[in-house]
Amino acid sequence: MERIEVIMVVMNGCNYCVSLRPMISDMLRKYHLNLKVVPNTSLTPEIRKTMPVLPHIIFKVDNKVLSQWGGIPKGHTMNSIVKRLEKMVLMNLLKKK
To answer: In the structure, what pLDDT confidence band is assigned to residue 75 with cuts at 50, 70 and 90?
Structure first.
């Protein structure tokens, strides 16, 4: 069985992190999934350099990173980020059936 995992790397004082976290959590709950939140301070300096913009979202299936991005890409809103993630979740849940 495939395992879907959504990870959000956050930073203290990041307003987007605070606002986006419950939106993603609520969406994932509909599919009986949880959001894993990782403070950037818990990462090594080398890994932090690969994630210069926070929040950083990582979408994994079976421990393979399928997609990741940092911040709110230009032309997107927080709602569009949640919808983008939801499409990825649904596509991978439907594959399992």
So the answer is: confident
